[in-house]
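Q: Got a minute? One more chain.
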Amino acid sequence: MTFGQKIKKLRTESNWTQEQFAELMGVSAQAVSRWETDSSMPDISLIAPIAYTFNVSCDYLLGVDLKSKEKDIYSIRKRAFESVVGDNPQKWLNASNMIRNGLKKYPDSWVLKDSLVVFLAILSLPKNNEGYAEAGKELNALCEEILAKCPNKKSHYNAIYWMCHSANITNNRERAVELAKTMPHHYACQEELLKSIEKACDLSP
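A: Always. Here it is, folded:
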């Protein structure tokens, strides 16, 4: 059911004419008619008042099924991780592409971005991927995005962990050291992270 079909159904169930509903919303009857025929959408500022008027959620009006979305996201994540049993570099590359495809569908998913960090960290190892340098750059950019925008602290710690272990490839030794010193000990030992940075940089190709 489209947005317009939902509006028309809710309006008629409430026994309102287009004119009456339009008056409630402070718009013209012509605007309501365009909404109901899916010729146009209301201003974003009207979505919440419309939902409140009909006693439904904004997600319902906009066709967002959060439970199905979350289920699909975790299904993509599960398939990707299950596909990398073993140490075949091509499988890791294929799995990372599965996550990327998932992000095309759900670009705001921190779960998928968090998962991609792991795959990129593996692919940034020279022995696992000819394009390891590019993977390292992508890893670094993604980790910085997570640190700057993701509200989930666990994702922050995961990003810091992999940035430290990939400091040689991402060429961010100073940044990795800075972040390692912010890591809570209950998640990862700061001293061990600092050692991993030194080890990674000593082994830099």
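A: The mean pLDDT is 86.
Q: Perfect, thanks.
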